[in-house]
Amino acid sequence: MELSEDAKFVDRVSEFVVAYDFEVYDIIGTITWFREHRIIMYSIVGLYLFSIYFGLKWMKHRPAYTLTRPLIFWNIGLALFSIICTLRGIPEALYNFSKPDRTFQVICVGLPHNYATSFWALLLVLSKVVEFGDTAFIILRKQKLIALHWFHHAATLWMCWIGYEYYETTGRAFFVNAFVHSFMYSYYALKAMKIKIPRKISQALTTLQIVQLTLGMYIASATMYFLAQGRPCRMHFETVCMGGIIIGVFLVLFVRFYIDSYSLKNKIKKI
Hints:
- The chain has helices at residues 5-8, 27-36, 38-59, 68-97, 102-109, 115-130, 133-140, 147-165, 174-192, 199-228, 237-262, 264-270.
- The protein is mainly alpha-helical.
- The radius of gyration is 20 Å and the shape is globular.
- It starts with a helix and ends with a helix.
- GO terms for molecular function: fatty acid elongase activity.
């Protein structure tokens, strides 16, 4: 299996962002490692689901842990990480979107590329394993664990891992996810601090998630459109099809969650 053009032609310094020394790494070697060790990802997801099942059983007859201080630092850490990812990912995206036929360029061609963008995209993939800790806090604090939460975490790791394996051009849109998480984890940190936050903020965050997923569906649809036109597109079939299905499921679940949580009918019931 050939490595993508992005992996072969990565400039350390380009006109849109300068990569720091620590951001320069062996991209081809890392991609190869991901491809040869996909079983690790499946094992992590399996262990995650296993831990959820037995964690809920273990906490069933135990008092809830408070964990206020650890939760505050946890969310602040993830918020800061997401902000950095956003700032490092935006310059390359803006540069590529400034070109003619920008949608095709970004989705199917996506050159030029930079070490800084690649490095933080890789860290974002790895952060999806770390974010499983969100579920641990929910279980230990005996909060309600909805299917949307654990399915979203497990499937997101799957998509990100596969996307990095094929080093997809659209992976450079990772900053969109980081941007959403910047607000999301900041919101969770403030809630953990017992700061009263208007319900409209929570509603706006869910709306932001839906917008992100709608963008993902647009990318999948645009890829299929370009392929139907016979235009060369280096997005991999597995990523487009399976990723599109998962994002579609996410979108339905988030819209349903939005309606259940914020619809007028639901508000009347609560009154």
